């Protein structure tokens, strides 16, 4: 009888263990599926493009956000048409940097006048609401509001603008434009200007390292090479010769 009880307990234990293994095997594939659904839902809420890949043999000179500059190409994702654009430095002729930024005195003067106008408007509104006999202040509202609107318009026109545009060998143009946001203008942040300066420096560095600008070692080797070897070598043709 004791042997039968031990066998029954053993069978019951094995049955529980098998049920637990089956349950674990059933739930294990569901966890990645749930995680993938969460990731897909997160990507659907805030889709982010993948980083631009670096190809073998390229040297990365600059990478910030959706812009990549190597010694071979400029690649970036245009936020307006959501398109990946690539420009080869081998076919790029020139790079131009054009920055517009007002002086510090003009920016502070415009901000000060706007703050003073708003404070005067609040004071007049407070007096007009508390004093029932101050109906004459109504004539002040129109020129005061007009001056505030004009000040905002001038302050908006003074917004900095940073542009880098380049010319290709087929006479096409490309450009990257940056403008600070409202919060950045109020805080006086210069991070977009620093970003564009670093981008222009990387593009100029990539242009200066192309084949039509031979380095010093290659030039010395050409000067010291035998005349027969120099005669057999193809002549270096500058890309810019066709546009002079």
Number of helices: 8
Low-confidence stretches: 25-31
Q: Which strand order spans the largest sheet, edge to edge or round the barrel?
A: 1-2-3-4
Shape: flat
Mean pLDDT: 76
Structural class computed from helices and strand pairing: alpha+beta
Distance between the termini: 109 Å
Radius of gyration: 34 Å
Total number of strands: 7
- Residues in helices, as a percent range: 40-55%
How are helices and strands ordered from N to C?
HHEEEEEHHEEHHHH
Largest sheet: 4 strands, antiparallel
Beta-strand proportion: 15-25%
Q: Can you give a write-up of this model?
A:
This protein has a four-stranded antiparallel β-sheet with strand order 1-2-3-4, covered by helices on one side. A three-stranded antiparallel β-sheet has the order 5-6-7, covered by helices on one side. The protein is 52% helix and 18% strand. It has eight helices and seven strands. With 244 residues, the protein is an alpha+beta fold. Residues 25-31 have low confidence and may be disordered.
Short description:
52% of the residues lie in helices and 18% in strands. The chain has 244 residues and is of the alpha+beta class.
């Amino acid at each position: 009888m004791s042997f039968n009880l031990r066998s029954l307990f053993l069978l019951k234990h094995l049955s529980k263990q098998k049920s637990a293994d089956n349950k674990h095997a059933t739930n294990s594939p569901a966890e990645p599926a749930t995680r993938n659904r969460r990731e897909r839902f997160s990507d659907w809420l805030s889709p982010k493009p993948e980083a631009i890949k670096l190809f073998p043999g390229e040297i990365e000179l600059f990478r910030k956000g959706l812009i990549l500059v190597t010694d071979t190409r400029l690649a970036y994702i245009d936020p307006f048409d959501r398109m990946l654009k690539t420009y080869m430095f081998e076919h790029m002729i020139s790079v131009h940097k054009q920055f517009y930024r007002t002086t510090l005195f003009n920016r502070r003067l415009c901000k000060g006048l706007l703050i003073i106008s708003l404070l005067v408007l609040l004071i007049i509104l407070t007096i007009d609401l508390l004093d029932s006999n101050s109906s004459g202040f109504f004539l002040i509202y129109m020129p005061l509001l007009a001056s505030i609107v004009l000040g905002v318009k001038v302050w908006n026109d003074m917004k900095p603008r940073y542009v880098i545009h380049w010319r290709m060998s087929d006479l096409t143009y490309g450009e990257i434009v940056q403008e600070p946001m409202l919060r950045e203008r109020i805080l006086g942040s210069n991070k977009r200007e620093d970003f564009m300066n670093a981008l222009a420096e990387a593009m100029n560095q990539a242009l200066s390292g192309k084949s039509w600008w031979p380095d010093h070692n290659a030039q010395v080797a050409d000067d010291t090479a035998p005349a027969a070897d120099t005669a057999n070598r193809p002549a270096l043709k500058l890309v810019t010769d066709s546009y002079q």
